[in-house]
Amino acid sequence: MYQELIDKKAKLAVIGLGYVGLPIALEFARKISVIGFDISAKRIEMMKNGIDPSNELEKEAFEDCDITFTDSLDVLREAKFFIVAVPTPVDEHKVPDLTPVQKASETVGKVIKKGDYVVFESTVYPGCTEEDCLPIIEKLSGLKNVVDFKSGYSPERINPGDKNHTLATIVKVVSGCDAESLEEVAKTYELVVKAGVHRASSIKVAEAAKIIENTQRDLNIALMNELSVIFDKMNINTYEVLEAAGTKWNFLKFQPGLVGGHCIGVDPYYLTYKAKELGYHSEVILAGRNINDNMGKYVAKKVIQHIIKNNGDVKSSKVLIMGATFKEDVSDIRNSKVSDVVNALKEFYVNVEVQDPYADSDELKHEYGFGLVKEIASDYDAVIIPVPHREYKDLDENFFAGITKTHGMIADLKGIFRNKITNRTYWSL
Q: Which of 74, 91, 330, 369 is buried deepest, with most CB atoms within 10 A?
């Protein structure tokens, strides 16, 4: 398979052209022939014109690429190596929603041929590829995994907004259904991953490796968030504590904050769901998730307490939230926990306005029920900065004094204005 790809006798297809899929497709397209497949005709049209719908890549990223963008199964059928890179969210009950990856498996099942390869990149619980996805492909295609086609799993490690840690510069974990497929998958990814690949012993090991990467990060942030709540009761600034503790060489420098996005705030639930299915109730992982999921309400509570103390009339109060995306310097609003802060404030009838230089107002309205203000006012009772976009970092206390009442509170969740605000009440996690 590898030789056919580099000789351009076979095409590689990427199914799902979002934050993960599109960079993968374009990177491969500089080396081999690629088909970029997405179910959205609108997105396909944008990419044909060199526009990244996710606003991550510049027009130059599309240049010198041997790629065909399509939503047609007939075109997709021309490929022999399929990479599935669709999202794996959770529902409102924190239960894994496998619909996107199952639909993608159905798509593969309709077009896969004898001798083809399929590799999943979507983050799933250990066993999902072999137990949930491949049976769908086998049923629709009439082919058998290992015997008629080969399969593998290679978890995505792309970090949206990060220009340093890219597909090419991060070691890629790869796996296959047998020894032959492992080598073919590994050699294929080595075409584009300069950092090299790690050959996992099985598909389940590769799935588990990905899920614990984000679970570990989630738990460490949860610890910082819990410490922040404790230190706040002691009138100690958490960031000052972390600065002092960070002078030790082996101290892990995690920080408190809202934990959202398509990975960290979601992936642990895939692991605990599977554990529960196997008769084990996770305690540590779910405890961390509970802490992180409630941080939005905690922030809102602190702000409301300040307003009650200094204004008295909550219904007449105004709060500005600066930042609506799930992290800084990206347009991605998936699973943004800023919405938790907005909703908690509105439960107390606070007038909330949101500003963000990256987010799309219509997209926010559709997803969370609130949009962006076009202009910032000058009479806020509090300003919350949950997302430290680069556009905010050079702001000074005169700016905040100009948009807040004299009793105003600056809730700087990530501590970027620490020791810079003296003329307003300052608070951070």
A: 330
